[in-house]
Amino acid sequence: MAVDDKLGKTGGSAAKTAEPTRREGPEEGYHKTDLSFCYFILDSLPIAILAVDPDLRITRFNPWAQQITGIAEEQALGRYCGEILKGGMCGQNCPLKSVINRQKPVMRLETEIHNKAGDLIPVEMSTAGLFDASGKLIGAVEAFVDISEKKSQEREKANLISMFAHDMNSSLTGIHGLGLRLSKTADLNEENPRKFIDLITREAGKLELLVKDFLEVSRLQTGRLNLTFDATFLDKELFELFNSYEPKAADHGITLRMENKGALPVIEADANRLRRVFANLLDNALKFSPKGTTVTITVEESGAEVMVMVADQGQGIEATELPFIFDIFHRVPDVARKEGYGVGLAIVKAIVEGHGGRVMVTSEVGKGSTFTVFLPKVSKLGDG
């Protein structure tokens, strides 16, 4: 039977989501045969495992190994492991050779293998020798897991740090240059001191936002987004935010409206963090809205929740992008030229969920997007 028929179409990181078919359990008495029982365990573990004989020919290729590689066990049995995995350590650096020759009892490493389609898959691999009760070598076993997602996150983190460093350096260079120019100006009346102050303030503001984003990302990744709950007048917070953003919207030729459908109850919340949520949503709405359009904040109660909607008339979001819009570092491809690091909406989601709430988005390309935040009237205090 082909692997596609047996396990479903495979390849890449499919092993993360698919549940491979296991062999039937051992018959009565199998535990008396060490090797048979060992193989039963290898087939049952939710990790890719292959076993080889002392000549490095595959004797077992469990369902998870088939899932990751896309190769059926009957196609792998009897072949050299290097022919099947085509790994980065195959050849002279083969870890199986090291454990079989007893150079090392166990080897753990990161390397890459190829699946049936030829795709390169990063894996974490552990290798150990197999010996019978008398200490005689009967083969070796190799266990590996697909770490494509881990590697992707590492690349994203490195890119993020690089972007932060670049933008921080740009602002610092600008501030330093302005300072030098001022220090060399004998008579400040010859220059416009207000212009210099405004430029320095603007660059310092950029630095402040960069540092805040960096700290938020760090807290998100380590699960330390601590919230301080207190009685919060949501009407007051939103009204103050509206007043601070109305001039900014007007500067962009955008009308900012607020519709409050009745007084809101006092809720238990971290007021500063909630302001960050709605500030992020308003920043996004203004960033992607063309001149002459309207951004609307709508607030209303709905059952046991308070709903806050931020709707724009901008370019909208493709349906294929919507499932990933709250993922950290995710940026919609067509708007990559816009400022930002793809962390704002991830921060929004983390803060809202920390309040026991939820956030959702609806969008239509060419017509705009609406982000809706649902907050419980009765606090569901998170652990932070």
How would the blueprint of this fold be written?
Blueprint: H1 3-7, H2 34-44, E1 48-52, E2 58-61, H3 63-69, H4 73-76, H5 81-85, H6 95-100, E3 106-114, E4 120-131, E5 137-146, H7 148-183, H8 193-222, E6 230-232, H9 234-251, E7 255-260, E8 267-269, H10 271-287, E9 294-302, E10 305-311, H11 344-354, E11 358-364, E12 368-376
Parallel strand pairs: 7-9
Antiparallel strand pairs: 1-2, 1-5, 3-4, 4-5, 6-8, 9-10, 10-12, 11-12
Helix pairs in contact: 7-8, 8-11, 9-10, 10-11
Task: Write a structural description.
- By secondary structure, the chain is α+β, with helices and mostly antiparallel strands.
- It has 3 domains: 144 residues, Beta-Lactamase, CATH 3.30.450.20; 72 residues, Signal transduction histidine kinase, dimerisation/phosphotransfer (DHp) domain (Helix Hairpins, Orthogonal Bundle), CATH 1.10.287.130; 147 residues, Heat Shock Protein 90 (2-Layer Sandwich), CATH 3.30.565.10.
- Helices cover 39% and strands 22% of the residues.
- The protein contains 11 helices and 12 strands.
- The strands form 3 sheets. It has a 5-stranded antiparallel β-sheet. A 5-stranded mixed β-sheet has the order 7-9-10-12-11, with helices on one face.
- β4 and β5 form a beta hairpin.
- α8 crosses α11, α9 packs parallel to α10 and α10 runs antiparallel to α11.
- The longest helix has 36 residues.
- It is elongated and about 80 Å long.
- The two termini are 50 Å apart.
- The relative contact order is 0.08.
- The N terminus is likely disordered.
